[in-house]
Write a structure and sequence with these properties.
This protein is an alpha/beta fold. The protein is 30% helix and 24% strand. The strands form 3 sheets. Strands 1, 2, 3, 4, 5, 16, 17 and 18 form an 8-stranded mixed sheet that branches.
Length: 408
């Protein structure tokens, strides 16, 4: 897909880091040429946004499956693919293949596996995978328990100028737990682990990040104790960032009350106080990224007893409307929402996208933030429709999506 004819989008509201302003945007040769109070030029194709928001395409940091149709529905133009594939992304050729898998209508940025086979024992050939297209290195669904190995990983990644994306749960404490220890897990009789397992993992990795100067991104931070550690580390100038998925700011462990396995997550849903702490952290900039955690699971993985079911949910299609609930609730404004969904993830990936600015890739979405619709697992474009939000009314829909100036 290569843009041939310049395109000017008029009659919309531009969402930039500075806020929302009425204006137009001109896309030329796959890049944003200019935006603001501009007019179409002779020969331009013209698209009337009819009052819709003109936003950057979303950058989804950390999906487990590349679902093009689901991403397009959700306004996502770039995904960062976790290394937890079959086989894992721990070799150069696998990274190269993954990087081309989205062409021509979706950017795929693979994460290199931190260790061979993601077993947490021996470092993988990270430099070779970076040369093949890896945009970051990740520990996958697991935490690296060996502190010496993690130290070497961070030093190596710092030398290569790669961010390390880590899972934040002490594996020795979590074990085979399916829920967070507390009243709900006790009532349901579920195998559970204390929420402190997250803070322990975050505390160690913050200390190692401070020691090495490496960039560390905690893919999901879901508890008040761990968020306090991130907040304090940022205050000291430690180069750490934190992410979250909508499930963890929309739902608490009360969602598991009927043993519904669509609410089985990793990390598991927390109590109501931790959920509120996540919302506070989004509002005060402690959390840097909201991602879908897109991990569709079929009935063979979900129609099992809760403790045996696989964690994960299909999240690409609901990422934008669920994040917009924070805007309607006054937690953040629309510019901050796009910073969390696009600008900050693009920065972590070192991708020339994620914001409306001259010279950036022309990945653009037209969004109606008020358009209502109902989440329906039977109609989802994802390879499996396992979402805890089935039947929930939401607002916010992508009307038009462009990648490199071309409609997808």
């Amino acid at each position: 897909m290569k843009q041939i004819t310049p395109l000017t989008i008029t009659g919309g509201k531009l969402v930039t880091p500075e806020g929302v302003t009425e204006g137009s945007i001109r896309l030329v040769d796959g890049l944003i040429e200019t935006l603001g109070d501009i007019k179409p030029q002779d020969g331009d194709e013209v698209l009337n946004a009819k009052g819709a928001l003109i936003t950057p395409g979303l950058v989804d940091l950390g999906v487990f499956t590349v679902d093009k149709s689901a991403c397009h529905f959700g306004g996502i133009t770039r995904v960062a693919l976790m290394p937890d594939q079959a086989p894992p992304l721990d070799y150069r050729a696998r990274i190269q293949y993954a990087a081309y898998s989205g062409k021509p209508d979706l950017w795929v940025h693979p994460f290199a596996a931190a260790t061979r086979g993601l077993d947490g024992r021996d470092l993988a050939e990270i430099a070779m995978m970076k040369d093949a297209g890896a945009r970051a290195v990740a520990t996958g669904r697991q935490w690296i328990a060996d502190s010496g190995l993690m130290l070497r990983l961070l030093r190596y990644a710092a030398m290569l100028d790669l961010v390390v994306v880590t899972h934040a749960e002490d594996a020795a404490i979590v074990g085979e737990a399916a829920a967070t220890a507390g009243e709900m897990a006790t009532r349901l009789g579920l195998p559970a682990a204390p929420a402190e397992a997250e803070a322990l993992a975050v505390g160690r990795d913050v200390a190692l990040a401070e020691l090495t100067g490496a960039r560390v991104h905690f893919r999901q931070v879901t508890t008040r104790a761990a968020l306090d550690l991130i907040r304090a580390a940022k205050g000291r100038g430690v180069n750490v960032t934190a992410g979250i998925t909508p499930a963890h700011f929309m739902l608490s462990d009360l969602a598991t009350v009927d043993f519904r396995t669509f609410a089985r997550m990793s990390p598991p849903l927390r109590n109501e106080e931790d959920r509120k702490a996540v919302i506070e952290a989004i509002g005060d900039d402690t959390i840097d990224v909201i991602a879908s955690g897109h991990d569709p699971r079929g009935p063979e993985d979900k129609r099992l007893p809760f403790g045996d079911a696989a964690p994960g949910m299909a999240g690409a299609e609901t990422l934008l409307p669920l994040t917009l609930t924070l805007v309607r609730d006054g937690v953040i404004d629309i510019a901050r929402a796009l910073e969390l969904l696009a600008t900050n993830p693009a920065k972590l990936l070192n991708a020339p996208a994620g914001s409306l600015a001259s010279g950036r890739e022309a990945d653009v979405a037209l969004v109606d933030p008020q358009k209502p619709w109902i989440v329906d697992t039977r109609k989802m474009a994802a390879s499996a429709g396992n979402t805890p939000f089935d039947g929930q009314p939401v607002q916010g829909r992508v009307l038009v999506l462009l990648k490199g100036g071309m409609r997808v």
